[in-house]
Amino acid sequence: MPFSIIAGHERIIGILRRTLAAKRTAHAYLFDGPEGCGKRTTALALVEAVFCNGTDGCGNCPSCRKVAALQHPDLHLLEPDGAFIKIDQVRALQRELSLRPFEAPCKVCIIDDADRFHPAAGNALLKTLEEPPGNALLILLSANPDGVLQTIRSRCQAVHFTALAEETVATTLVARGIETETARLAASLAAGSLGKALELCSVETLGGRSEQIEQLFSLSLQEIGQLFAFSERLSADKEEVQTLLDLLTAFLRDVLIVQAGSDHVVNLDLLELTRREAARQPATRVMASIGHIAAARQALQRNVNTRLALDTLLMRLVA
To answer: Each residue of 96-109: pLDDT tens digit?
Structure first.
């Protein structure tokens, strides 16, 4: 894909274009930023540029099409096997990088969730990061740069991605054929993540959030069995839990806005529910709930057991 189709990261694209033109591309990059903001898309665009003509991908040649389909023989992907990226995975990658490229000028590896290296695996990768064989290029991706081993961070050129502007996300969604109102609502709830906005555009997610929020606020410690059953149902899908936390945070923010005397909320279609909770819950409790959700999100990022994190959160929210 050409750099031109990437939305909202003009400064980063400009830097990458200039380094390619000057033939001064780093041997290892760390792309860090929020989930779904475009790190992986930009990494693939950089790979296409390197493999295609050295300045930008055309998007049409066999090389570009193979990269876009993740089927290029000189493009390797590394991601956690379970909770961590393991040392056997790193050794297998090193063997691959030691071989001559099949078609491209060099070999490239995109490493997803670079904050999840097992320490032994991270240490095994250090030599490769310092001196990649055959001018190989490594692009590490992480939504949690503080979790990336310092020894790895120090050997990569950091490229920091920020959350996309809400208008950029909405415009991109509309360009992809999503109805304007749905795009606006999804962009408002997605906190600058195009990937998250695309997930939210499904009828099941947006249409079902009212029922989920109603169910949550109907829970109580007096009927702990119902609370645990709700937690068990949600915890089966960690991504669903993260989505619920995002939706709930946005909803509680709307509650605070209504309590402040305004109706300029994100969840305009849930205004009556928002007003009900604004009248029922004091602002101090709402703010404490937002803090509990943030703590649960951090726990999940540290790979705490999903069911345990959700049980704890729900008990705090309804206490």
So the answer is: 999 999 999 999 99
Amino acid making up residue 118 = H
The predicted pLDDT at position 291 comes to: 94
Residue with tokens 């023989």: 73
CA-wise closest residue to 170 among 192, 153, 152? 192
The pTM assigned to this predicted structure is 0.75
Per-residue pLDDT reduced to its tens digit, 23-66: 888 999 999 998 888 899 999 999 999 999 888 888 889 998 99
Query: Is the pLDDT assigned to residue 16 strictly greater than 60?
Result: yes
Alpha-carbon distance values, 209 to 131, 185, 273 (Å): 49, 12, 11
Name residues whose C-beta falls within 8 Å of residue 248's C-beta, 6 or more positions apart in sequence.
Answer: 213, 216, 293
Q: Report domain 3-160's class.
A: alpha beta
Closest to 185 in 3D by CA, of 203, 197, 193: 197
Nearest Cα neighbor of 43 from 112, 102, 130, 132 is 112
CB < 8 Å & 24+ apart, contacts of 277-282: 277/217, 277/251, 281/255
Query: 3.20.20, 1.10.287, 2.60.120, 1.20.272: which CATH number matches 202-318?
Result: 1.20.272
Sketch the domain layout of the chain as residue ranges: 3-160, 202-318
Q: Cα angle at 58 between 57 and 59, to 5 degrees?
A: 95
Rounded to whole angstroms, the Cα distance separating 312 from 308 reads 6
Q: Which two tokens stand for residue 110?
A: 């995109």
| Cβ neighbours of residue 103 closer than 8 Å, sequence gap 6 or more | 51, 63, 72, 73, 74
Report whether 182 contacts 204 (CB < 8 A).
Answer: no
- Summarised one tens digit per residue, pLDDT across range 134-192 is 789 999 999 989 899 999 999 999 999 998 888 888 888 888 888 887 888 888 878 78
